[in-house]
Amino acid sequence: AQKYTGIVEDCCCNYETANLLNEEVLYPSLQELVKTPFFRYFKVKLWCDCPFWPDDGMCKLRDCSVCECPDNEFPELFKRPFRRGLPSDAPICQEGKPEAAVDRTLDHRAFRGWTVTDNPWTNDDETNNDEMTYVNLQLNPERYTGYTGPSARRIWDAVYSENCPKYPSEELCQEERLLYKLISGLHSSISIHIAADYLLDEDTNSWGENLTLMYDRVLRYPERVRNLYFTYLFVLRAVTKTATYLEQAEYNTGNPTEDLKAHSLIRQLLYNPKLQAACPLPFDEAKLWKGQRGPELKQKTQEQFRNISALMDCVGCEKCRLWGKLQVLGLGTALKILFSQNGEDKIVQTLQLQRNEVIALINLLNRLSESVKFVHEKGAAVERIMERQSGLFPFASILLQKVWPFSSSLLS
């Protein structure tokens, strides 16, 4: 626990405060917020051609993994031409792993009052409704899906090696460290969610926490944990910076009670006195892009992030693609908020966000909040257990998975 104290590198908030605020303010508010009708539906293009290499992931046929819900389940505003899907009793093809398929059941809701503009930081054309469908995120949790092997590894290899390679930190300025730390923090959060909701026994359909995996992928590397906190505070800053905009936005789904609840929860989160007093500026974006190389570095970072966004079309698992696209869009929205506008006084007048961007931003902050909570509450204990049992007997890691109670996702 002593490893994570003091100011989070490149941020304006310390670990102790970040953990306290997450426990008392952010986590409980976000858990309620993402369950409201407005924030549970995400518009996404699930049928994608990889722009970088031939499709060779888990599921090669576009319609083989998900059964379309009947047309009469969609609200009128959601309807669009659909590809022919499998009948509801057809077997799932993704290597026999139904947990990798997206459940597209929707209820009757409608959205209105939001602008339609593309995000300059991301690759997807968010205005092309003909290629997109709505997905209920509550029916498709981020968890283990069985998506492993060369296809999954190639995604992360391309993300890091081609777009945000790591160099010794002393050789880089803060702007050059930014993208690597954001992606590393996101990667850590994804790995934590995979390990926290893992298929322990396929025969009995037993799910739980795979603490060995969590230790091997995240907890044994302090830098990855630190980058998780960095990404968390970066996204939190984007949300708090655009507080006035989010307060004035319409959260209209046709359910007045739930819409009022969503608006109330947004206000409670943005203007919480504990948050404003303890960490009013989680990250200071005003320090970046100031030098002579500032505009060049900013443009380069934007191009690299757009490439990362495009790589999400290469994810071979449909449910992993869903959460990859959502979280990358959420991170792209945070970048858009912090670096596309200058100054707090102008952001309300000039900023334009799509409904989908706000949904992605809040859901991403919730996923990061969950990961920070897990690391804070269980990280030190898991590390002690793993270090004690290391080398004692060969089956310790298998037993450890089943000792902890039930509590996957993008890529392995």
TrEMBL record:
<comment type="subunit">
    <text>May function both as a monomer and a homodimer.</text>
</comment>
<dbReference type="InterPro" id="IPR007266">
    <property type="entry name" value="Ero1"/>
</dbReference>
<feature type="binding site">
    <location>
        <position position="143"/>
    </location>
    <ligand>
        <name>FAD</name>
    </ligand>
</feature>
<keyword id="KW-0732">Signal</keyword>
<keyword id="KW-0249">Electron transport</keyword>
<protein>
    <submittedName>
        <fullName>Uncharacterized protein</fullName>
    </submittedName>
</protein>
<dbReference type="GO" id="GO:0015035">
    <property type="term" value="F:protein-disulfide reductase activity"/>
</dbReference>
<keyword id="KW-0676">Redox-active center</keyword>
<keyword id="KW-0560">Oxidoreductase</keyword>
<feature type="binding site">
    <location>
        <position position="184"/>
    </location>
    <ligand>
        <name>FAD</name>
    </ligand>
</feature>
<feature type="active site">
    <location>
        <position position="320"/>
    </location>
</feature>
<keyword id="KW-0285">Flavoprotein</keyword>
<comment type="similarity">
    <text>Belongs to the EROs family.</text>
</comment>
<feature type="disulfide bond" description="Redox-active">
    <location>
        <begin position="59"/>
        <end position="64"/>
    </location>
</feature>
<dbReference type="GO" id="GO:0034975">
    <property type="term" value="P:protein folding in endoplasmic reticulum"/>
</dbReference>
<dbReference type="Pfam" id="PF04137">
    <property type="entry name" value="ERO1"/>
</dbReference>
<keyword id="KW-0813">Transport</keyword>
<keyword id="KW-0274">FAD</keyword>
<keyword id="KW-1015">Disulfide bond</keyword>
<dbReference type="GO" id="GO:0005789">
    <property type="term" value="C:endoplasmic reticulum membrane"/>
</dbReference>
<feature type="disulfide bond" description="Redox-active">
    <location>
        <begin position="317"/>
        <end position="320"/>
    </location>
</feature>
<keyword id="KW-0256">Endoplasmic reticulum</keyword>
<keyword id="KW-0325">Glycoprotein</keyword>
<dbReference type="InterPro" id="IPR037192">
    <property type="entry name" value="ERO1-like_sf"/>
</dbReference>
<feature type="binding site">
    <location>
        <position position="145"/>
    </location>
    <ligand>
        <name>FAD</name>
    </ligand>
</feature>
<keyword id="KW-0472">Membrane</keyword>
<feature type="active site" description="Nucleophile">
    <location>
        <position position="317"/>
    </location>
</feature>
<feature type="binding site">
    <location>
        <position position="217"/>
    </location>
    <ligand>
        <name>FAD</name>
    </ligand>
</feature>
<feature type="binding site">
    <location>
        <position position="156"/>
    </location>
    <ligand>
        <name>FAD</name>
    </ligand>
</feature>
<feature type="binding site">
    <location>
        <position position="187"/>
    </location>
    <ligand>
        <name>FAD</name>
    </ligand>
</feature>
<dbReference type="GO" id="GO:0071949">
    <property type="term" value="F:FAD binding"/>
</dbReference>
<dbReference type="GO" id="GO:0016972">
    <property type="term" value="F:thiol oxidase activity"/>
</dbReference>
